[in-house]
Write a structure and sequence with these properties.
The chain has 277 residues and is of the alpha/beta class. The chain has two domains: 207 residues, PAC-like subunit (Rossmann fold, 3-Layer(aba) Sandwich); 44 residues. The protein has nine helices and nine strands. Strands 2-5-6-1-7-9-8 form a seven-stranded mixed β-sheet, sandwiched between helices. The protein has a two-stranded antiparallel ribbon with strand order 3-4. β3 and β4 form a beta hairpin. α1 crosses α5 and α5 packs antiparallel against α6. It is globular. 33% of the residues are buried.
């Protein structure tokens, strides 16, 4: 099972973009949906009015869609069946909602659940996307190279679902792509690409995400052009690149060693751009 939701867990639309790409790449077909009546506040997630070619009108309600696909055969064995789950993060009755998805995972004997998310972070758009993750099962965490999660704080539907799956004995792991906070309003195909490649690798499935690679290249170029036009933004991104390069090299940067300097850089950048967006 592979799961992603739009909303709080989906910075830069990266997780939902990744899931939608996998749906298309694997030719997934819908087989069920979750009735939204019990789980959505329609003043927050509003239904849409659609007009048809014959002049009629209909209401399109938000829903969570379940799709199925058969993955291509692998060198080490036959292909797998996969259930893909996508939709908008619900606002209500999360425990009941997660029980429905757990029932699907158990009913279809899912061997693994991958939960995709994206978060805003102090990372530069010019460097490879960081994908972090966690798994509650020690053996699964070791196999995927995931350290134990040390996070404490607010969570979204992904955290609740991850816990519910673990409680039901379904092995599950979550992957989170880091999206630069200074371009959070722009969809990030670069982060989506990182999630697609990581998911396919774990599942042993072949994907050729050329479309996402082109979109990721365009995204990086366009953001770089915008940043280059602003002296403060360019200096801020350069400081993030310095910190990222030092971290990748396993050493401390001057910026990270001086938290006051980092705070000044962030505050200066935000003051300049708070009104302009």
């Amino acid at each position: 099972m592979v799961v992603a939701f739009e909303g709080w867990n989906d910075a830069g639309d990266a997780a939902s973009l990744a899931l939608s790409y996998l749906v298309r790449a694997w030719g997934a077909e819908p087989f069920a949906s979750i009735d939204p009546e019990e789980f959505y506040d329609f003043t927050e997630t509003r239904p849409l009015v659609r007009a048809s070619s014959d002049g009629g009108r209909s209401i399109e309600w938000p829903e969570v869609e379940l799709l199925s696909a058969r993955l291509p055969e692998r060198s080490e064995g036959p292909g797998r069946d996969v259930v893909l789950v996508r939709g908008v993060e619900p606002q209500l009755r999360w425990r009941s909602f997660c029980r429905l998805l757990v029932d699907v995972a158990v009913g279809y004997d899912c061997e693994l659940a991958l939960i995709l998310g994206a978060l805003l972070a102090d990372v530069p758009h010019t460097r490879p996307v960081r994908v972090t993750g966690n798994a509650d099962d020690d053996e699964l965490a070791a196999r995927l190279g995931l350290p134990p999660s040390q996070y404490e704080g607010p969570t979204g539907i992904l955290g609740v679902l991850h816990h519910a799956l673990s409680e039901a004995g379904v092995p599950s792991a979550s992957f989170w792509a880091s999206v630069p906070h200074y371009v959070h309003q722009v969809p990030s195909p670069k982060a989506a690409l990182a999630l697609v490649e990581r998911s396919a690798s774990v599942l042993g499935a072949t994907v050729e995400p050329d479309e996402l690679r082109v979109a990721a290249s365009d995204y990086e170029r366009q953001v770089s052009d915008r940043v280059a036009d602003d002296e403060d933004a360019a200096a801020y991104v350069a400081s993030l690149e310095e910190a990222d390069d030092a971290d990748a090299a396993g050493s401390e940067s001057t910026l990270l060693a001086d938290p006051d300097r980092l705070a000044e850089e962030v505050e200066r950048f935000l003051r300049r751009h708070r009104s302009g967006g």
